Amino acid sequence: MVGMEGTGCGALLRELQQIWAEVGESEGEKSKVLSEIERECLEVYRRKVDDANRTRVQLHQSVATKEAEVALLMATLGEHKLYLKKDKGYVSLKEQLAAVTPVLDDLKCKKEERIKQYYDIRSQIEKIRSELSEHNDKGDHVNSPAADEHDLSTRKLNSYQAQLSTLQKDKSDRLHKVLKYVNEVHSLCGVLGIDFAKTVNGIHPSLHQNGVEQSRNISNSTLEGLASTISNLKAERKSRIDKMRDTMESLCHLWKLMDSSEVEKRQFSKVISILISPEEGITSAGVLSQETIEKMEAEVERLTELKTKRLKEIVTKRRAELEDICKNAHIEPDLSTAPEQTNALIDSGTIDPSELLANIESQIVKAKEESLSRKDIMDRINKWIAACDEEAWLEEYNQDSKRYSSGRGAHVNLRRAEKARILVTKIPAMMDNLINRTFAWENARNKPFLYDGGRLVSVLEEYRLNRKQKEEEKRRYRDQKKLESILLAEKEAIFGSKPSPKRASSLTRKTNGYRSNGSSNGLMTPTPRRSSLGSATPELSTPRSYTSRYNRYFGDSRRLSVSQLNFGDDSLSTFTSISGSEPESPSMG
Predict the structure, then answer these.
(1) Which of 38-42, 44-48, 497-501 has the least mean pLDDT?
(2) Strand 454-455 to 450-451 pairing
(3) For residue 303, how many other CB atoms are within 10 A of its CB?
(4) How confident is the model at residue 527 (pLDDT cuts 50, 70, 90)?
(5) Residue-level pLDDT at 335
């Protein structure tokens, strides 16, 4: 109560005592009222003290909570700065709360900033990792901020930044390499005429996306795919260059061979200038495209067909020349290059016309060489045939009853007959010489001397045997004429007159059994004629006299089917008509 005397309560208490004095309240009542007043005051004070205590406790809790938050945030953020506190005996709780609140707010701001930094760095890291991964996933794989709130220290942030810096450098290097590879693929595809978009899409679709915000996949598989594609494209480029160079070489050869015009060459002038450059220097778009190669191949095919046509004409011409040489030399041409066979081979493509032409050229050279080696014998054959022709003419001339008339040209025929008689006497020597030289030729070359497919020696031997048979028939005819003359003389002596020609002819037939060949003088005149040596003759063997002396390469048992001169056919028919029998085949054992 003492404390209330200096306040408004003391004034009120004095005023109450004055009232009690005037009223005359008893001391008991006064004490009772004052006790109630004191109790009510205590209750009011108690409430106020309780309220003050609650406020103090709340302040203590607030300060402790905030200080704990500050400590946690400092630990989370890795802050090592100490916030100094004054002695609690001199600093009220409100002052402490007022001091810690700005610190806490500052730390919370730092935490939010740190979380944002973490999120940005982690986002970049995850994005780069996604680009480096085998599959370019676009999903957000960044952890939520709450996942890393327990550790937002600067040390960890620096670690993420270092990791990000490493990934960014790796990304930069890979991106540079990818762009380099993509540009190289684009250049190669342009040169080869290949679809660039289809090529890179086969590696990864992101490589052909032109959006600025679109990230390209720069994973190991993408780099390996680009490197492999570049290697394949370079191999294809080399293959096409080699193919085009071979085709161009063939094309230039055909141009030169076919004497092509500059207009035909001009369409490939760019290709020619490109192909002489090194591989790395070929950058013109489409110059190595499949279309260009097909165009060159089509031109080569066209010129090859034209070349084949012309070569076919040349082959035919050269074959005709070969046949002429063989015909003049009486040699059988090689049937492997016959026109009907060569045309079929060229049309079917079985043989190269150039090879066939070279083969014919070789045959022409051989035919000329053989013709030259046969020249001496061929000249003697021609002389022999000419002598046989003169012999045939002489026999016909001798059968002419008017050969001694004084008609025009009679003296010319007389001179020719004199020369023919001299020439005919040389035929046996010509035969022997020709046979000897033929054997020498065969021995020197180890092959038979063929004349139009038949062996010449066999033909000559047969001719000689036939000639000997002819001579024998002539001798018999002369003996018969002598016998006829004796018989006629005897008849004249008996009958005293010459019998008529008809009777004499009948007498001759009855006596000798010979038939006249229809000539005016009844003479048999063998007439060897020149004809082809290609007619069929019986198989003949070389006579032993010549076999033992000359022919070491063709034995007695070897028989050849030969073609002979058709000489003496008329003579042999005359002999047959006279003798009434066929001459035996001149077969020598």
Answers:
(1) 497-501
(2) antiparallel
(3) 19
(4) very low
(5) 79
Q: What spatial distance separates the first Cα and last Cα of the chain, rounded to whole Å?
A: 190
Instruction: Please report which residue ranges of 400-455 form alpha helices under DSSP H.
Output: 410-425, 427-445
Read off the DSSP letter of residue 26: -
**Dihedral (CA of 479, 480, 486, 489) sign:** negative
The DSSP secondary structure of 294-331, one letter per residue, reads: HHHHHHHHHHHHHHHHHHHHHHHHHHHHHHHHHHHHT-
Residue 210 in domain: no
For 378, phi and psi rounded to 5 degrees? Answer: -60, -40
Q: What are 447's strand-pairing partners?
A: none
Residue 547 inside a domain? The answer is: no
In a domain, 501, yes or no: no
pLDDT score of 537: 33
The residue out of 491, 519, 546 marking a domain boundary is 491
* Predicted pLDDT of residue 48: 92
Taking Cα atoms as reference points, which of 375, 391, 385 lies closest to residue 430? 385
C-alpha distance from residue 520 to each of 372, 395, 399, 406, 525 (Å): 48, 14, 8, 20, 12
Token digits of residue 211: 């959006």
Residue at 45: amino acid letter: Y
Q: Which residue has the higher pLDDT, 284 or 534?
A: 284
The DSSP annotation for 231-242 comes to HHHHHHHHHHHH
Structure tokens that stand for 311 in this block: 């070569």
From 473, 491, 509, the end of a domain falls on: 491
Does residue 533 sit in helix, strand or coil?
coil
| pTM reported for the whole predicted model | 0.49
C-alpha dihedral, 314 to 318 to 319 to 320, nearest 10°: 110
DSSP type of residue 540: B
pLDDT value, residue 293: 87
C-alpha angle 59-62-63 in degrees, rounded to nearest 5: 85
Work out how many domains the chain is built from and give that number: 2
DSSP symbol at 563: E
One-letter amino acid of 520: S
Dihedral over Cα of 257, 263, 267, 268: its sign: positive
Q: What is the mean pLDDT of the chain?
A: 76
Nearest to 178 by CA among 143, 131, 130, 226: 226
Question: How many whole angstroms separate alpha carbon 555 and alpha carbon 548?
Answer: 9
pLDDT category, 82, cuts 50, 70, 90?
low
DSSP secondary structure of 368-383: HHHHHHTHHHHHHHHH
CB 171 within 8 A of CB 128: yes
Per residue in 84-118, pLDDT (tens digit) is 454 545 678 888 888 888 888 888 898 888 889 88
Instruction: Give the residue with greater pLDDT, 116 vs 136.
Output: 116
Rounded to the nearest angstrom, the gap between the alpha carbon of residue 390 and the centroid of all alpha carbons in its chain is 69
Whether the pLDDT of residue 338 is over 60: the answer is yes
In a domain, 375, yes or no: yes
Query: Could you tell me the two tokens for 358?
Result: 């070279």
Decide: 493 and 364 in contact? Cβ < 8 Å: no
Q: How many separate helices (H) and strands (E) can be counted in the chain?
A: 18, 4
3-class secondary-structure state, position 68: helix
**Integer Cα distance of 493 and 511 in angstroms:** 18
Q: Whole domain around residue 89: which residue ranges? A: 10-115
